[in-house]
Amino acid sequence: MKVVVCIKQVPDTKGGVKFNPDGTLDRAAMMTIMNPDDKAGLEAALRLKDQYGAEVTVLTMGLPKAEDVLREAIAMGADKGVLVTDRVLGGADTWATSQTLAGALRNMDYDLIITGRQAIDGDTAQVGPQISEHLDIPVISYAQSLKIEGDSVIVERQYDDRYHVLKAKMPCLITALAELNEPRYMTPGGIFDACKAEITVWGRADLKDVEDSNLGLKGSPTQIAKASDKVRKGAGEKVSLDPGESVDYIVGKLKEKHVI
Amino acid sequence: MDFTLRKEHEMARALFKEFAEKEVKPLAQEVDETEVFPRGTVDKMAKNGFLGIPVPKEYGGQGCDPLTYVMCVEELSKVCGTTGVIVSAHTSLCCDPIMTFGTEEQKQKYLVPLAKGEKLGAFGLTEPGAGTDAQGQQTKAVLDGKEYVLNGSKIFITNGKEADVYVVFAVTGMIEKRGRMMKEISAFIVEKGMPGFTFGTKEKKMGIRGSSTYELIFTDCRVPQENMLGKQGQGFKIAMHTLDGGRIGIAAQALGIAEGALERTIAYTKERKQFGRSIAAQQNTQFQLADMATKVQAAQLLVYKAAMAKASQKEYGFEAAQAKLYAAEVAMEVTTKAVQLHGGYGYTREYDVERMMRDAKITEIYEGTSEVQRMVISAALLK
């Protein structure tokens, strides 16, 4: 069984967010982590490795330094890493990203593709399902549990107030929720191996069956009008009053601010 | 000369830091307060390979270098001195001598499960009358058939009752050395549960209160002949070699405690307001913090240098002694200043620096007091 996990190096939002003049994220200037949903997807794949001996390959698109996130995945137990990096791929939105990853995946053997539900830097949840469309394979999104039965996967797909149990024949794509599991730590020995591991690096020329018009900033239908960091609110004010007084207090404040 | 860490060391530090913050820090205060050995944490460390970091992969370890191991003890000790010394005693004092002096059979039988973390290790050298003076050993081992019979006791043993495998030293005879009769000391691998091996009282300590410090008692304890570690009479050499490595582990523990206290003090002095401004805005605080940080950095360089020496040199006792001496004294000084800068709050058990100051003291005492380190260093200078 071969599993490919798509992972993304995302800004560690604890370290603050920085932007380029064109409104895209200045990834080179930020501390980075493995996207949490993707990490849960990787853990799910590693459990399939523990249980069934699955071969786990991690795939990412990004700057050359995105190699770090692949080494982290290998230090957790993944077998191989593939980095897709090329100047012409920069500034990609979800459409161009999924086209790129699909172009890479067409070169790879897989029974199962796992992506995170969404990345904490974009929060679109579009890339996973789009990849499945490009590759013409089934997708089950929002997986809160995953098991294998013969040549199929059985997944609990999460909703706000319920979940559906779905079965799909492999090859297929699953998008994982962070709640799917508690990802394991890297091991010290795994880190030493990961630092020696050979990472496969692909550029534009290695992508299969993808038009130039679907790649990079030029191939991205999304236009960013404006982007900004969160504006910090003031410290606020805490008062302890009984319910009747509270209503008067709040109404008074709203009048003071000319809200009502 | 390049002080930049290699990629694998940066990643390993990030791993140990994350583990320490998530798994160890939340329990540190409780472990100190209740004096209960953190078995759950030890199990998690075992699962993640933290108990065999410098042991080669063919013996169940992680195949990393001494620097990686030092960083593990350092990061753990930043949040919990108890957890730091559990790893240090297990790795430096039990895995290391078996790895260095053990036969292939001993390595397969004992080192593999120790490095995998399936078993925990300890080291028994100190006796009521033999601390710094190892020649004062009273524990005896007499060959009877195919077994050695051990009688005596060992005190202040870290991981005492919680360990499974112990490297224990005992007198196996008398030999003449430079015209004087000296005790011949040998080392043995003793397993928990061997007949005649029991535990005495648990020590009630000032610091590292969760570390299970016990007396080991041997009453006609029968140890198979094949469990002698190294050759007969090699015990003193094994003990001294082991302590050279152990000192690097304790130096890393001391360094971590100092770093932890410094981090907390920087955060606290920025928050604490007196006379209308944060105490970090007072020049006294700034100068104190500058001195603390500079000494911590100097200690880190000595500790890392000792770890590098262990990786590349046959003898590293001098570097280990300097690292242990300096890091331990810095730990004591920095934690004391940290309590002072926390004021009255720092004296309460609600704040971590109170525990860190108590934990720091032992690093100036065990695995060779600061006075012994000065003896080792000066002996090398004057030889």
Describe the structure concisely for a colleague.
With 260 residues, chain A is α/β, with parallel strands linked by helices. Chain A has helices spanning 36-52, 67-76, 94-105, 127-135, 188-196, 243-256; strands spanning 2-6, 9-11, 32-34, 55-61, 80-84, 112-116, 139-149, 152-158, 163-169, 172-176, 200-202. In chain B, 54% of the residues lie in helices and 18% in strands.
Explain the layout of strands and helices:
The complex is a heterodimer of chains A (260) and B (383).
Chain A: E1 2-6, E2 9-11, E3 32-34, H1 36-52, E4 55-61, H2 67-76, E5 80-84, H3 94-105, E6 112-116, H4 127-135, E7 139-149, E8 152-158, E9 163-169, E10 172-176, H5 188-196, E11 200-202, H6 243-256
Parallel strand pairs in A: 1-4, 1-6, 4-5, 5-11, 6-10, 7-10
Antiparallel strand pairs in A: 2-3, 7-8, 8-9
Helix pairs in contact in A: 2-5, 3-4
Chain B: H1 7-34, H2 39-47, H3 66-79, H4 81-101, H5 104-116, E1 121-124, E2 140-144, E3 147-157, E4 165-177, E5 180-191, E6 197-202, E7 214-224, E8 228-229, H6 235-271, E9 273-274, E10 277-278, H7 283-312, H8 317-346, H9 352-362, H10 370-382
Parallel strand pairs in B: 1-4
Antiparallel strand pairs in B: 2-3, 3-7, 4-5, 5-8, 6-7, 9-10
